[in-house]
Amino acid sequence: MNRAIAAVAIEGSPDFEFREVRLDELRPDEICVRITATGVCRTDAEARHLTPLPAVFGHEGVGIVERTGKAVTRVKPGDRVALTYPYCGACPNCGAAREYHCDSNLPLSFSGRRGDGSATLFLDDNPVSGAFFQQSSFATRAIATERNATRITDKDVPDWVLAGMTCGIMTGAGAVANVFDLQPGQSLAVFGAGAVGLSALLAARVLHCETVVVIDPHQNRRELAAAWGAHALNAGASGTDIRSLAAAGFDAVLDTTGQESVWRMVPGILRTGGQFGAVTTPEPADSWALPIAPFFERFATLRMIIQGASRAAEMLPRMIAWRAEGRFPVDQLISRFPFAEINSAFAESAAGRAIKPVLEMPRQDQGTGE
Ligand SMILES: [Zn+2]
Ligand SMILES: [Zn+2]
Asked: How far is the CA of 242 from the centre of ligand 1 (A)?
């Protein structure tokens, strides 16, 4: 039970290679999860530049708990869990129930190691980068911490839908519900109709926002946004065109694209005192300069958003309930791929054809192993 088949990202090749890896012994606060489904997210592609290779990525895992460390109390073997972002549990933000702003978020997500620097995965007995978001779920088994595992008892939501919800969809919905806290009748403009942007649109509908505008270059995505009640505009739409759809300006603007032209346009479409939130930044992020005066003159609030400021144990059940009520049809965002087709899943995502790819583990691989 300490071996897994993993999709390993290696130096010099854009494709993942399937290899058998060995999992380390569990620490007291850790669990071993037999993965059944895991989402694919843009962060998994960007991680090649952030995490030392070879590495096992994957940060949207769902599966069944097989084993637990000695100190684990909240889940037990046999429980179905959704794995989300990692946090230390000990810093001031974690102590104040803001674990999405954990001081150790970035190293726990991208260092390829546990918080104590040790490796969770071994390839041919050599340590490799694992513990990606403290899960590395592009594998048939994963080591997670008890903290980033949420037990899911609702049987109506399939594993592949749940996996899709754990990061990008939670980010978009959380941006609207938690960060902007939009109220009935308010307005939202969203740049980029990927999983994050379209989930923001869906959450805005759930919360009875009046006007939602979605701007995206892909026709298939604009059609989906329009079917869900948004004004859908092509990328390159002018600030004047966008602004004309909300007389007083937009209460909130969400950027999921990191396009410089979008950030420059925002003050012109925001209402006075409105909120601008971004889930990524223009490149190069460490030297790009944003003229700030237009934001000041709009008295805007700027929010850099991670995970939609969502506490997974609250946000996942909330989204599951919206879906059960028919108000959050995220199934339509998801394209399902067998785990063996992980390279196609990334290619379809990069081409804009798959909005939210989810990988499903083969049945025959489940429950086997040493
Ligand atoms: Zn923390
Ligand atoms: Zn993600």
From this structure: 39
Taking all residues of the chain, what is their mean pLDDT, rounded to a whole number?
95
Distance of CA 103 to the CA centre of its chain: 19
What is the CA(245)–ligand 2 centre distance, in A?
Answer: 31
- Of the listed ligands, the closest to the CA of 57 is 2
> Bridge-partner residues for 360, per DSSP?
37, 338
Copy the structure tokens of residue 280: 């990524």
The pair of structure tokens assigned to 19 is 């290899």
Position 283 scores a pLDDT of: 87
Q: How far is the CA of 100 from the centre of ligand 1 (A)?
A: 8
CA of 188 to the centre of ligand 2 (A): 22
* Closest ligand to the CA of 147: 1
What is this structure's pTM?
0.95
For tokens 């869900």, the residue is 228
Report whether the peptide linkage leading into residue 284 is cis, meaning its omega lies within 30 degrees of zero: yes
pLDDT band at residue 370 using 50, 70 and 90 as cut-offs: very low
